[in-house]
Amino acid sequence: MLNSFLNEYHDNKFYQMDITNPNLEAIVAEIFSTRANDANNKNSTEDIEQEKIAINRLLKMEEKGILTVSVLEVSGNPIAFSIDEILPRNFALSHFCKTDNSFKGAYQYLNMQTAKLLEKSSVLYWNWEQDLNIEGLRKSKMKNHPVNFLKSIKLS
Fold it and tell me: Is this prediction's pTM over 0.85?
């Protein structure tokens, strides 16, 4: 899929956007809306709304210095974003990664470029995607050859 994206979309542009950029919320909202309205999206309306609230809350956080936002454009139009947090001890945490699914391979390309960007910030480990013990998500995670899984516990 990655090669398909690179072969078809020569005019792609990947860049890091300042978290305080006033255009960021509009870009995130546009990509999120496109993804949420995708006919192949199997998430419930409630799940989509909860995720939208979480993204907006994250963007409105007062301490934004540790967040990094990556954007992928094709023909000058944003089609994907990733919001990651750089943590101590060479770790990063992926909060959100959304792409317009009509661009095949964009998700893979965004993740590859984001990984390169994080590596430049001395990140060695990227905690990426909570699988919630859902078999399909766990299989998807395994394709990325994880070095370890964090143990999850349920607090009651």
Answer: no
pLDDT tens, position by position, 12-43: 999 999 888 889 889 988 887 887 777 666 66
Query: Which residues lie closer than 8 Å to 144 by C-beta, 6 or more apart?
Result: 128
Query: What residue numbers bound the domain in which 109 lies?
Result: 2-130
Closest alpha carbon to 77 in 147, 4, 9: 9
Q: What is the CATH number of the domain that holds 123?
A: 3.40.630.30
Whether 93 maps to a domain, the answer reads yes
Place of tokens 């990094």: 68
d(CA 30, CA 33): 5
Residue 140 lies in a domain: no
Spell out, as residue ranges, where the chain has pLDDT lower than 70. 39-44, 62-65, 129-138, 140, 150-156
- The rounded distance, in Å, linking the Cα atoms of 21 and 6 is 28
Q: How many domains does the chain have?
A: 1
CB atoms within 10 A of CB 150: 7
Which strands form 12-17's sheet, in the order they lie side by side? 12-17, 67-74, 77-87, 91-99, 125-127
